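It is worth pausing here to work through a concrete case rather than discussing structure prediction in the abstract. The textbook approach is simple: state the sequence, then state the predicted structure, then interpret. We follow exactly that order.
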Amino acid sequence: MRSSLCWLLTLLLLLASAAQGQPTRRPRPRPRPRPRPRLRPTPSFPQPDEPAEPTDLPPPLPPGPPSVFPDCPRECYCPPDFPSALYCDSRNLRKVPVIPPRIHYLYLQNNFITELPVESFRNATGLRWVNLDNNRIRKVDQRVLEKLPSLAFLYMEKNQLEEVPAALPRNLEQLRLSQNQISRIPPGVFSKLENLLLLDLQHNKLSDGVFKPDTFQGLKNLMQLNLAHNTLRKMPPKVPSAIHQLYLDSNRIEAIPSGYFKGFPNLAFIRLNYNLLSDRGLPKNSFNISNLLVLHLSHNRISSVPAISNRLEHLYLNNNSIETHMTFKEYLTSLGSVLVCKMAQNVYEDLLV
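Step two, the predicted structure:
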C-alpha cells in the first residue's frame, strides 16, 4: 500500500516539474475597436439669397484728399475753381452722398445707385443740372423732385425706370429718360412743364395704349420729341404743335393719318426709318409741308417717291422698294431743291439716262 502511494506521489511530482518547464500560453487580448468620433450637429442658419450678378460689385473708390470746401463729401471731388459743381461720377457708389446747398451741377453718372434718398437732397434746393445716367434706379421718390424747384436738366438714361417720374420741376428744360424700362406715363405728368424743350424717351417699352389725347398736354414749347426704338404701331396723338424735331425710328408704324403733319408749322426734321410704311399707309402730300428740311424714310416698304416740299434739303429713301421709269433729268427735277438724296438698295435700275 505504501509503495503504491509513493509511486503515485512520484508521478505527480514529475508531472508538476514538466508543467513548470513549458511556457504557459495566455490568450491574446482582442484589439478594442476605436471609438468613432461623434458628429456634432451642424447649426442651421438661414441661407442668403443668391446674388443677382455672378460676381460682387466692385468696391467704391477710396476717399480722396481733403477738399478746400469743408462740406465736400470725401467720396466726391469739388473743384476749387468751380465751387458750384460736385463730381461723384464713376466711383462705384451705392448711394447718393449728402449734397451741399452750394451745388448747382451734380454729376452722379456711372455708379451703382438704386435710389435717391430724400435726406441726400434735403438742402440741395439750388440744383440746376443733375446727371444720373447709367445707374440702377427703379423709381424716384417725388419728394426728392419737389425739393428741386430750379432743376432745368435731368439726365436719367440707362437706368431701370418703369414709368416717367412724377412731380417733375416746373423749370425743367431737358428730360432724358432713354434706355430704361418705361412702359407707363402717369396722367398729367407733363401738364406743368411749359419750359420743357427736349423730351427723350427712346429705347423704352412704350406702346400705343400709353399715349392718350392729353399725354403731352402742357408741353407748349417742346422742340424735340424722341420716341424711337419703342413698340408703336400708330403715330402718337396730339403731339405738341411747337415741335421742331420728331424721332420715331425703329417702331412698327404702318400708316400716317391724313393731314397728320399739317398742325406743325415749325416741324423741320422727321425720322421714320425702320418702320413698316408703305404707299398704302402714306396719304398724298403727307410730307409736303412748307418748313420740312430733313426727311428720313429709309428701311420701309415704300414703292414710290412721296410728294415733298420744294424747300426740302435732305431726303433719305434707301432700302425701300422704289421703282421709277423717269429719265435722269425728270428725276432730278422731281426732287426740287433737295441737296442730299440717298436711294441705295431700291429697284431703280431702269432709270433712263
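Step three, interpretation. Confidence is low (pLDDT under 50) at residues 50-54, 349-353. The helical segments are 2-21, 142-146, 328-334.
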